Amino acid sequence: MCSLGTGWLQMKGVVVEKGQGKTRVYPFETKCDLRSHTQTINFAERALGTSTPVMGVKGPSVLSLLPGFDIINGCIPDYIHCVLLGVARACANLWFCGENSGKPCVPVLKGTLPERFPVHWAKLMNGVVLLLSESITSEGITKAEKLLNAFVQEVEGLYGVCNMTFNIHLCLHLAQSVKDWGPLWTHSAFAFENYNRDLLEMVKSTQGVTLQI
Q: Per the domain annotation, does 70 fall within a domain?
């Protein structure tokens, strides 16, 4: 089995050509084995002893020493980086980038963009909106999960396997993170990103930055 690049599934990554280089992508798979905390710790110990990654695990993490912390379910996707800065930015680049001018994903204007693209995009948006609700039911999570699964499954056919990125794959885990931790807004990085601005305002010169903060 090749290097496994996802944090929740024992899933094969595939290296494909993209542009002038290569990238690792994660084609949609209907069935994958889930990782577990105990199994991952065992993989880490084996990797440490052999200096070789085991099932994609390169070695132990200091986080595994935290009492009661689950190294798998305790690490959750953040929708800012996964959806907003990840999938949304990637799709916008596909629509607007000059390199794609000869391809069907043209700039987004109703009646200009082929219908299958906005229909596909709506699945992501509707799924994420449901998972961002202040109050969400189990039925709502199930609906969002189906929408996001359909979105990920259709990416390869619309944009090519080279665009089946890690962020695209992460969309498959958003619903589960809501089941485990609540709506996406309760564990997003917005609060931390916002505080970065406060930290920057503390810095008045390039010397002794840490002391200024």
A: no
